[in-house]
């Protein structure tokens, strides 16, 4: 599942019933076009495709009055199951491809949809994977002279190392925030962000 599909499912889940325009407006208010590369056309395409796949139900809008009929969508049981299956995977999975970060950011938006301990566990798994990646980069840097790599390649490794250091520090802080009770999560009293 792509970042766009998870975001669209999550927004429909959160709103209960939504038109494509409402989903688009919500995602643009979060600047998802910038950090998840969500384009307006992909939102409408995702809604229609997930309805065909049986993850969303189409709901005819009877409140439109004299305007053209619009179709609204509602998350069904299958869609809820898919959302709750993909969310943990996208939170914990560290991908090397350029879109991997889009997936993580899309899942992070709906982090409060999970129970606190599950979220901590998933982010801990991600932290371990990032630590392994950091160890690999550290080894590459230490060995790069021996391989005769040009200095600009070593500079690239140092950039990668710095990015991993930042991601590890940030993720460690987020896990500490969750442990200290920050954010309203699915198993806390009150309505968490993204709850239906």
List the helices and strands and how they pair.
Elements: H1 3-15, E1 17-19, H2 20-29, H3 32-35, H4 40-52, E2 56-60, E3 71-75, H5 77-92, H6 100-109, H7 116-147, H8 151-179
Antiparallel strand pairs: 1-3, 2-3
For the terminal residues, how far apart are their CA atoms? 20 Å
Total number of β-strand segments?
3
The structure class reads: mainly alpha
CATH architectural type of the largest domain: Orthogonal Bundle
How many domains would you count in the coordinates? 2
| Spatial strand order of the main sheet | 1-3-2
Output the helix-strand order.
HEHHHEEHHHH
Silhouette? globular
Q: Name the CATH superfamily assignment of the largest domain.
A: Winged helix-like DNA-binding domain superfamily/Winged helix DNA-binding domain
Give me the CATH fold name of the largest domain: Arc Repressor Mutant, subunit A
CATH hierarchy class name of the largest domain: Mainly Alpha
**Average pLDDT reading:** 88
Largest sheet: 3 strands, antiparallel
Q: Tally the helices: what do you get?
A: 8
Can you give me a brief rundown of this structure?
With 196 residues, the protein is mainly alpha-helical. Helix content is 65%, strand content 7%.
